[in-house]
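Why do we bother with a discrete structure alphabet at all? Because it lets us treat a fold like text: something you can write down, compare, and reason about line by line. To make this less abstract, here is a complete entry for DUF2306 domain-containing protein. Read it the way you would read a sentence in a foreign language you are learning: slowly, and without expecting to understand everything at once.
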Amino acid sequence: MHERRPTTPTTDPGPADTSLAAPGRIATRPAEPGAGDARPARRRPARLSFVALGLAALAIALISISTYAQGTLRELAADDAGLASAYADEPALVQGALYVHIAASAFALVAGLPQLSARLRRRAPRGHRVLGRAYLVAVGVGAASSLVILPANSAGFVGVFGFGTLAFLWVGSGTRALLAIRRGDVASHEAWMLRTYALTFAAVTLRTWTGVLIAVQLPGAGPDPDAEALFMHAYAAVPFLCWLPNVVVAEWLIRRRGLPAYRLSASPTPRRTARQDATVGLVVPVAARHA
């Protein structure tokens, strides 16, 4: 017969002690009280911002389409609706490109925002891919059609350079996003999609900045302000102002999320992380032992 050895009850050892970590091993830090409760609190402002962006994008998309769906450009120009007066006397090709640009940009504005949601990407990966392809097609169509209507823009040469640069950056960032996901670089794809949507969101910030710049002029405009002059003065700065701040915010978000940041120069040699240093510290002695 075998004696039964008395068993000692096992107890929870508790969190690992960082001071007793063996050399070459990565010590773990005990969780701080309440750390798990802080994560939902941090996500709440992000969700509110996401909802606000979605409502703004949807509103501008609906306003843009509904405005130009109410009649011909000549009829809309008589009512001083939108930018119809700038294109009412243009050739049919330019007028058609204007409608294509409005439709494609409105679709990209609405379809692009869900692509940035990690939750939606996890829950519906197939829908994410299908919607992403449609979004990038809309970006390409919107950028190409904007180049056709560019010479007739209301801001003159400033508009040609500002909106022209926006068009090339728009389609260029979309192309980089597509190439990144095709080679399996998910992090770079996410970063370029964020940049692309920041440029897409220029449709919203264009109208926002126009309204702000008109309002700034009102105190000095006198009792009977010239609405057309106020608009032209405000619109002169919009071709660059509608997208440059968006790009700055996008780069800040990219760096905050730890995604590949855009660099004009060659990337420096990446430094090893603590985990990689620990791995090297374990592998090198073993390799020397078998040499």
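What the structure line is telling us, in plain words: Confidence is low (pLDDT under 50) at residues 1-38, 266-291. The chain has 13 helices and no strands.
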